[in-house]
Write a structure and sequence with these properties.
The structure holds 2 protein chains of 2 kinds. Chain A is an alpha+beta fold. Chain A has one domain: 2-Layer Sandwich (Heat Shock Protein 90). Chain A is about 40% helix and about 25% strand. Chain A contains 6 helices and 5 strands. Chain A has helices at about 5-10, 35-45, 50-70, 100-105, 115, 125-130, and strands at about 20-25, 75-80, 85-90, 135-140, 145-154. In chain A, strands 1-2-3-5-4 form a 5-stranded antiparallel sheet, with helices on both faces. In chain A, α2 runs antiparallel to α3. The longest helix of chain A is centred in the middle third of the chain and has 21 residues, at about 50-70. The radius of gyration of chain A is 15 Å and the shape is globular. By secondary structure, chain B is α/β, with parallel strands linked by helices. Chain B has a single domain (about 5-110), classed as Udp-n-acetylmuramoylalanyl-d-glutamate--2,6- Diaminopimelate Ligase, Chain: A, domain 1, CATH 3.40.1390.20. In chain B, about 35% of the residues lie in helices and about 15% in strands. Chain B has a 5-stranded mixed sheet with strand order 1-5-4-3-2, with helices on both faces. In chain B, α3 (about 55-65) runs parallel beside α4. At the A-B interface, α2, α3 and α6 of A face α2 and α3 of B.
């Protein structure tokens, strides 16, 4: 990841998070896909976050996790809870998104045939994240990687 | 009123995995093989009819809190999928009927996805 990209998105939190977990997500690992999101959901339930918000976060988390599986060379999914918000941050090592505006468009996808046969790659992931989150910030550099930051207000 | 357990009996479904939600009332459903579509449009407690049998359907059902999955058309379900459903407490069902037939019966017994 490009250092500038990393600093601009990840060192934003002045408040030390109450909960912080990092999950490694491997490229093309459709068998383990969803496990990180399930763990995140369980933690949110345990700490008593209301069920509607848990559901929104679980959906966004799964979409972000699947994006790493389907599109990236592998990366990290970071889960942070602060007193005022919950953040999901994915950071990958490439290949990067050439046209973010196009990637955000519903129906556009660059998913592999394998992903499509499993029922993914309909170009609905990023729009679905946006629908469920309070804010979405995405930065990408081709050849470097992508950082996606999803925030939910508590 | 259609509880999940009543649906299993009514449609004579094979039970591959049982969650702790058999008494839940089901009022809506979706019939779709595109997981991306289900992630974007599935509602809590939906009963989901699909021909997808791979392990990823369990995560989708669990994260969306669907009431259950019905694999249609007499398809054999991957052993890994059944194991995962048991681990996650997801109700996984199957039937020899097609998705069209299953959806029709569900609609007729009052599961109309209204409201």
């Amino acid at each position: 990841m490009h250092p500038d990209l990393s600093t601009s998105l990840c060192n934003n939190s002045e408040v030390e998070p109450l909960i912080k977990h990092a999950f490694h997500i491997s490229a093309n690992d459709f068998v383990s896909a969803g496990e990180a999101s399930q763990k995140i959901k369980n933690i949110l339930k345990q700490i008593g976050v209301n069920s509607e918000l848990v559901r929104r976060i679980a959906i966004a988390s799964y979409e972000a996790e699947m994006n790493l599986v389907i599109h990236s060379n592998g990366g990290e999914l970071l889960f942070l809870v602060t007193p005022s918000e919950i953040q999901l941050i994915t950071e990958d090592t490439g290949p990067g998104i050439p046209d973010i505006e196009l990637a955000m468009k519903e129906g556009y996808s660059t998913a592999s045939q394998q992903a499509r046969e499993l029922g993914f790659g309909a170009g609905m992931g990023l729009p679905n994240i946006q629908r469920n989150a309070d804010t979405v910030d995405i930065r990408s550099e081709v050849g470097q990687g992508t950082i996606l930051k999803i925030t939910f207000k508590i | 009123m259609n509880k999940l357990k009543d649906i299993i009996t009514e449609l004579n479904l094979n039970v591959l995995s049982v969650g702790d939600n058999l008494d839940i009332e089901v009022t809506s459903g979706c019939c779709c093989d595109l997981l991306s579509w289900v992630m974007a449009n599935g509602k809590k407690n939906d009963i989901w009819i699909t021909v997808q049998t791979h392990v990823n359907i369990v995560a989708v059902a669990s994260l969306l809190e669907l009431s259950g999955i019905i694999i249609s058309s007499g398809l054999t379900v991957d052993e890994k999928t059944i194991e995962k459903a048991k681990d996650e407490g997801v109700t996984l069902l199957s039937s020899s009927m097609s998705a069209f037939q299953l959806a029709g019966i569900l609609y007729n017994i009052g599961i109309k996805s209204e409201g």
